[in-house]
What we know:
The protein is an alpha/beta fold. It has helices spanning 5-20, 37-46, 60-77, 133-136, 194-204, 220-230, 246-250, 252-257, 266-269, and strands spanning 27-29, 50-54, 82-86, 103-105, 110-114, 125-127, 142-145, 150-158, 163-168, 172-174, 180-181, 211-214, 238-243, 261-264. The chain has two domains: 24-90 and 189-269, Alpha-Beta Barrel (TIM Barrel); 98-181, PK beta-barrel domain-like (M1 Pyruvate Kinase, Domain 3, Beta Barrel). The strands form three sheets. A six-stranded parallel β-sheet has the order 1-2-3-12-13-14. A hairpin with a 4-residue loop joins β8 (150-158) and β9 (163-168). α2 packs across α3 (60-77).
Amino acid sequence: MTASNGGGDALTAAAGVMEMRPKTKIVCTLGPASRSVPMIEKLLRAGMNVARFNFSHGSHEYHQETLDNLKAAMVNTGILCAVMLDTKGPEIRTGFLKDGKPIQLKQGQEITISTDYSLKGDEKMICMSYKKLAVDVKPGMVILCADGTISFTALSCDTKAGLVRCRCENSATLGERKNVNLPGVIVDLPTLTEKDKEDILAWGVPNKIDMIALSFVRKGSDLVEVRKLLGEHSKNILLMSKVENQEGVANFDDILANSDAFMVARGNNTLVKSNKRWSA
């Protein structure tokens, strides 16, 4: 049985429309340079499907203004867009420095890292925000700072004083509050900080967001805890897992089974040493 010309034309047209729809979704971060209504309209027309709100920076008021701009842009263009809240997550950072001035590190020099985060650092001693640093890091382990551009090797650990004596493996300039990565260490930090919980419950839920991108997910049970936090709202909010450390890579299958979506955090994962190859 064959379709009439009219039916055939309709099927051909429908097939053409389907082919034109992009199969890959586009996520765009709405930051200082992209949060105005005219710019968001351009992003929508260019194919933005999901607007990412990065809660590592900015206040609730700041993000609310951006969301209001997004809503206005959607009305103006007639194009819908999902909203993603990206949590800050549990971070380890270096501390503040004396007079706020960067310090010069030289290859081969020794330096002490303290877990007293009130300390103002210098060329002899700096601090890091992870309280269990001296307990979890062992001599011979590597501590990476500033996206891996600065590398320290642990020489000795004083667990009572919360101090780690290190050798600097390269010459570099260290500024304030740089991110820290501990390859091979299972860090004892919650997936959701108190700030994350407040961001989700006080801003995300009232604004009926579509998705939460969870930073530093390490195991499948992390997703279970977030769904408990969301309660009845969990059925309407998708959870995207961001795997950013060695523990998360090791528990990949468990995390994937409990996630609605998955994000590969390239920046932090380049600092994770693993002999395992992942195939797409």
